């Protein structure tokens, strides 16, 4: 689990990032989870945007993505979800 201080640090790091995935009408699927896992391994910190036509609540989508990808949910702000997962090979972010 991330501490409040670590979440603040990750939020500041994520501020300038653009969402690289979009969750639409179909919600979360296996292929998306696989791609998100690969992106997390490469970048550690990613943003996912929830589109207007998504049938699910953005907080539910955030929880589902975090659980299925094994990532930490840093924050849900507006329709954007920030996820963090420590990379095994490309570790760049050093948490405080």
From TrEMBL:
Entry keywords, A to Z: RNA-binding
A Pfam family it matches: CRS1_YhbY
Signal peptide positions on this chain: none
All residue ranges annotated as the CRM domain in the record: 1-96
Coiled coil region boundaries: none
PROSITE patterns the record matches: CRM (PS51295)
UniProt superkingdom: Bacteria
GO molecular function, one term: RNA binding
The keyword Membrane appears for this protein: no
Parts of the chain that traverse the membrane: none
Stored SMART domains: CRS1_YhbY
Record protein name field: Ribosome assembly RNA-binding protein YhbY
Taxonomic lineage of the native organism: Bacteria, Bacillati, Bacillota, Bacilli, Bacillales
């Amino acid at each position: 689990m991330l501490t409040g201080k670590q979440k603040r640090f990750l939020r500041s790091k994520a501020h300038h990032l653009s969402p690289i995935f979009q969750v639409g009408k179909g919600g979360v699927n296996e292929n998306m989870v696989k791609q998100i896992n690969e992106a997390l391994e490469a970048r550690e910190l990613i943003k996912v945007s929830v589109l207007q036509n998504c049938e699910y609540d953005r907080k539910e989508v955030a929880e589902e993505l975090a659980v299925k990808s094994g990532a930490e949910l840093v924050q849900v702000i507006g329709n954007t979800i920030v996820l963090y997962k420590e990379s095994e090979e490309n570790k760049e972010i050093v948490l405080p």
